[in-house]
Amino acid sequence: MLKSILKYSTVLGIALVAGQAQADMLVFKANSGSGINDCSGNPEYSCEVLGPTDIPNPVSANPNDDTLSVWKEVGPLTLASDLTVNSAAGGGTIISSGTTIQSYMLQFDSPQPGAGTLEAGIEFGSEVLGLITATGLLNATDSLLGAPGIVYETFNARGLEGNDVVDFGADMFSVDVFFRTTSPGDWVRVITAAEVSEPGSLALLATALVGVGLSRRKRR
Ligand SMILES: [Ca+2]
Ligand SMILES: [Ca+2]
């Protein structure tokens, strides 16, 4: 976390020196095993992790506010064929058939006149495998990777433009974004590995196994 903060301080410093609009930083924290459920950052902007019933349906250009919205889409899903992404974590643009994944949507659409900017680090509960950032590929993967029952409208400029930056975090469990948006905003689909048991469950499982071991010993 400290590393992230330092990194953002550096980025912000560079942005200020360069005389660009000040970037506002948000950090979404992962809740292991169940994706992301917490966020913090500059009060000028906010972030919201949407539950299944909170996702606007159909998903249009709205919500047009200063909120970075993130929602869980599909998973665990075992890919029946290679999935083309704009950027795969290991290089290239393919996540291999047979990989079990989870998809998320990130969406930021500022209502400001002119372009709004937002910088964020988003941490996930499992390893990030790929990013879908181009409008065409976002639209093309909605049917496979979109949240069940949600209608995704397609827009020109839905994806990222030249001023936007999105990259894999150094820890492989996070994504760093810098969005410069006008409606319909900037949308990124993040593909992670399927979530594994959360540490709490693992700890409970370990306790349970120890319990079984003890009771077996007792029987002997
Ligand atoms: Ca943009
Ligand atoms: Ca855009």
Descriptors:
220 residues; alpha+beta; 5-stranded mixed beta sheet; 3 helices
What do these coordinates show?
The protein has one domain (2-219). The N and C termini lie far apart (48 Å). It is α+β, with helices and mostly antiparallel strands. Strands 3, 4, 5, 7, 9, 11 and 14 form a 7-stranded mixed sheet that branches. The longest helix has 21 residues, at 199-219. It has helices at residues 2-17, 135-145, 199-219, and strands at 25-30, 36-41, 46-50, 65-72, 77-78, 83-84, 87-88, 94-95, 100-109, 116-123, 128-132, 165-168, 174-181, 186-193. It binds calcium ion (2 copies).
Write a concise synopsis of the structure shown:
This protein is an alpha+beta fold and 220 residues long. The chain has helices at residues 2-17, 135-145, 199-219; strands at residues 25-30, 36-41, 46-50, 65-72, 77-78, 83-84, 87-88, 94-95, 100-109, 116-123, 128-132, 165-168, 174-181, 186-193.
Give the topology:
Elements: H1 2-17, E1 25-30, E2 36-41, E3 46-50, E4 65-72, E5 77-78, E6 83-84, E7 87-88, E8 94-95, E9 100-109, E10 116-123, E11 128-132, H2 135-145, E12 165-168, E13 174-181, E14 186-193, H3 199-219
Parallel strand pairs: 1-10, 3-4
Antiparallel strand pairs: 1-2, 4-9, 5-9, 6-8, 7-11, 9-14, 10-13, 11-14, 12-13
This protein binds calcium ion (2 copies).
Portion in strands:
25-35%
Average the pLDDT over all residues and give the rounded result. 77
Structural class given helices, strands, pairing?
alpha+beta
Domains (count): 1
**Which runs of at least 5 residues are low in confidence (pLDDT < 50)?**
1-23, 201-208
Small molecules (ligands, ions, cofactors) in the structure? calcium ion
Count the strands?
A: 14
SSE sequence, one letter per element: HEEEEEEEEEEEHEEEH
| Anisotropy-based shape | globular
Please bin the fraction of helical residues.
Answer: 10-25%
Q: Radius of gyration in whole Å, from Cα?
A: 19 Å
Measured between the Cα atoms of the first and last residue, the distance is: 48 Å
Number of helical stretches of at least 4 residues: 3
- Give the biggest sheet: 7 strands, mixed
